Structure formats: structure tokens, C-alpha cells
Amino acid sequence: MFRLSNNLVGILNLVTFLLSLPILGAGIWLSNRANTDCERFLEKPVIALAVFLLVVSVAGLVGACCGVSCLLWLYLLVMFLLIVILFCFTIFAFVVTNEGAGRAVSDRGYKEYRLGDYSNWLQKRVANTKNWNKIKSCLADGMVCTGLAYKSVNDTIEQFYKEHLSAVQSGCCKPSDDCGFTYISPTVWNLTVGTAISSNSDCSLWSNDPKVLCYNCQSCKAGLLDNIKSDWKKVAVCNIVFLIVLIIVYSFGCCAFRNNLRR
């Protein structure tokens, strides 16, 4: 049993160690090549993740294969905390993404989004001006609206209304249907506002400037939250599988730790 549990923990941590090296390399590459706020936002988390995996895998590898009980104990402690954190995050992710969905619009292929439909916690994340300015920079760098403009540049209004737009494209790249603007192209509209829709604050925020569009609109924030909601649900499901794997590895680690003490 000693050879099985200790060797298995050692092999798993060797694989983790090897995986951490390209992640660390990617983080260092980002730090040297980052030109935008979006790229600079990613560099520190990537490097931190790589260093964390590197240190933990070395502790597990040495502790299991060399019989160093203190390192293996530290490895098991980190694994236990990681299991608890992932479990809590998974529950939290399901709770905060339980609210909110796009609203179907008659004779439209896309949906429209309202910020108030989503959980208060998610709303607060995009309500902060500093946070939202960084997000806007990422949206612009991602050329989400530019891609829509090129793809549908020759669409008639009937064709455009049948487009299946993503939540971000619907919220950020065009004005709300409530505004009653006249369609010219997907990202260019004749700014003629009817009296019946003056209550929609997003109408006054729309601009045909490609750098502005509806990036300051509540609908854009709502579209982003809908994307986050969808992604978080997928992550939460993956976390369940990851948790099962971590618990199995943790169990083998406990066996290896007991074996070290017996030796």
C-alpha cells in the first residue's frame, strides 16, 4: 500500500509541476508583452496560479516520494483548504447565477437585457466605475461590436432583426428597441427618439462613435452579466468534477502521510 499511495501522489504532483511551467511562462510572456489593460489584468493571476501550483506540487512530490512528513502535511493542509474553497465557490456560483435572463422580443432573433433582472451581488460588480472602465477596455479590445459591424454590414433591417446576437452584442453594440432609432447599419442608427420611450435612460447614452456605442448603457452591463452567468454555471459544473478528483487525491495523500509516519 505504501508504494501505491505514495507513488500515485508523487506521479500526480509531477504532472502538476510540469503543467505549472508553461503556465508560468505564459504569465511572464504576458507581463512583457501586455499592451492593453485587459492583458495586464490577466498577467498577475496567471503568474500567481503558476507559482501556487509549482510550490504545492513540489511539496507533494518531495513529501510523498522522499518521506518528508512535514512537507506532505503542508500539502494536505493546502489541499483541504482548496477543497473547502472550491466547494463554497461552487455553491456561491449557483446562488448568484440563479437570477436573470434575456427578455424575448417579438419578431427578433435576439433577446434584450435589463440590469435589474440580475442578482444584487453581480450588479454591484459592474456598478463600480473603475471596474466598468476596465471591462469596457476589454470589450473594445475584443472587437465584439466591430466583428458584428463587418459581418452584418450589408444586412437590411429585416435581416438584422433575425440575427441571433450574443448577449454582449445585443446589449453593447446596438441601442435598445425601446428607443425607436432608425436602422442604418448594425452599429449606426439615426438618433431620432420618440416621446413614448423617453423613460429608457440607455437611449441618451447611445452614440454612433465605434469607441462609445452603448458601452455605457445598463443593457451592456446586463449583457455582460448574462455571459458571466452562463460561464459561471459551466465553471460550477466543472468544479463538481474537479472536487471529486481532489477528494480522491486528498485521500491518497492521507494514506501516504500515514505511511510516512509508520516509516
From TrEMBL:
Record field: transmembrane: 7-30, 46-65, 72-96, 234-257
Taxonomic superkingdom: Eukaryota
Compartments, as annotated in UniProt: Membrane
One of the GO BP terms on file: auxin-activated signaling pathway
GO cellular component terms listed in the entry, alphabetical order: membrane
Keyword Nucleotide-binding: no
Protein's membrane topology: Multi-pass membrane protein
This protein's UniProt keywords: Membrane, Transmembrane, Transmembrane helix
Keyword Transmembrane helix: yes
PANTHER family linked: TETRASPANIN-8-RELATED
Family: Belongs to the tetraspanin (TM4SF) family.
Name listed for the protein in its UniProt record: Tetraspanin-8
Lineage, opening ranks: Eukaryota, Viridiplantae, Streptophyta, Embryophyta, Tracheophyta
